[in-house]
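I hope you will forgive my troubling you with a question about protein structure. I set the record out below, with my sincere thanks for your time.
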Amino acid sequence: MLVIDQISKSFSNKKSHKLALDHVNLTINYGEVLGLIGPNGAGKSTLLRIIASILSPSEGSIYFEGKDVTTSDLIKSKISYISVETGLYEQMTPYECMFFFGMLHEINKREIHKKIEFLAQKFKFEEFLHQKIKVLSTGTRQKVLIAKGLIHEPKILILDEPTNGLDILAAYFVRETISTLKSLGTSIIISTHIITDIELCDQIAVLNKGKLVYNNKFSEIKGKYSSIEQLFLEIDSF
């Protein structure tokens, strides 16, 4: 179980002070998908980065399996944060990049090779495996980025706009992968504006101006709102 406990984050300089997150509380069970939505600037990316231990919270803690995510290297190794902003090493090939991250996670070399072949085939970028990443299209880079994040079979998967820029088949495989990982007990967090991604979720959390303004099971949301679009339209009123 992933527990987000009273997380706040402030950014300050000599001229200003901004409260990006204000005492956010959430719980994601094993094998559960949380959809994180909200307008631009709501604090979604900040929260995702804190869960991934890229940022430290100003207040609060995050626990997985009863251990503090920010202080446990073992728990950190079970997290995968996939975002366009994390980027790729452009001078590497997809194969070199994925192999490097597999080695970082201490996976057997033969097993890394098998995983790369499998993921490249599923995401349809086999023909680009040995080309420099800098020459690849935006969509192909996104495929490589997602594949890289799955190389170590994470227990906590954080996805920031995972299907943005993907073709129909690659987006379908991302969603199939999410469903498979969910069945294996992976805790998954998705930040997205794409309706078909949101429909994968077990619960929805709405952030607005740094506050958690709404949190409910997706099944109950469908009973309350005529569509997910209606929920989006009502965010500013929360």
